Amino acid sequence: MTNFRTAITANVLALAVVASAPALAVTLDELRERGAVRAAFANESPYGYVNEEGVLTGESPEVARVIFGRLGVENLDGILTEWASLLPGLNAGRWDMVAAGMFITPERCKEVAFSNPSYMMGQSFLVQAGNPHDLHSYADVANNDEVTLGVLAGAVERGYARDAGIPDSQVQELPDQTSMLAAVRSGRIDAAALTSVSIERMAQLGGDRVERAEPFDTPPEAIGYGGFAFRKADEALIEEFNVHLADFIGSEEHRELVRPFGFTEANLPGDVTAAELCQGS
């Protein structure tokens, strides 16, 4: 078995958005010669995060390790950054890909290129124990002007909130899951919005002061498909990546790999492609 190495690099300063042209394409031969692909993540469980042993894991890095291993790239070097810096840093050449479970959306497709999706996922809320405001949908927040909703800065949930008619004054952006959990526990926000599998993990970590809002009504437009982001110039690399991804997703090996992170057969993306998602299909 290939011995994979993960190097965790913390970016403590926010990355500036680079206005100049994206970095030149990276080729598969270059990655093989280097022996590693640099993958950015945002420490969001269960998509890409550092576990208690200090190892980068999660659905996205683990799938990326398998695919690049099949492509002859032995190591995956993880680079930790804030969510909002993932795509600017990619286009600035600070890393080769984003392995953070990022939803493929038309807006993001204007900035970067995506692999085909590796999963699909609905939404949920983290609320205080007992769900005191009876929040089971984005519409419930829109209908209660005393409620504040927390979202991850740069993530799709801000758009879902606007689409549901929630005014910006009722939405608070937070940098990461840790701050979202703390804000719900303290009552600084009344609910935190993320994908259902992320909220389930946060509820488990939060103890008896928080819970996952159940049931939860995910609108059709908020069912997302997550994939791996690359620079637009990396077409040849993405094509090779997608070939092996198609062979792997849905296999028994894949299902066993992602099951510990809460992913089931219900989260398989089917035949949906990045091209369709970039077009808003």
UniProtKB/TrEMBL annotation:
The keyword Membrane does not apply. Keywords: Signal. It comes from the Bacteria. SUPFAM superfamilies: Periplasmic binding protein-like II. The keyword Signal applies. Residues 1-25 form the signal peptide. Pfam families: SBP_bac_3. Residues 36-265 form the Solute-binding protein family 3/N-terminal domain. Gene3D superfamilies: Periplasmic binding protein-like II. PANTHER family: ARGININE-BINDING EXTRACELLULAR PROTEIN ARTP, MEMBRANE-BOUND LYTIC MUREIN TRANSGLYCOSYLASE F. NCBIfam families: ectoine_ehuB. Belongs to the bacterial solute-binding protein 3 family. This is Ectoine/hydroxyectoine ABC transporter substrate-binding protein EhuB.
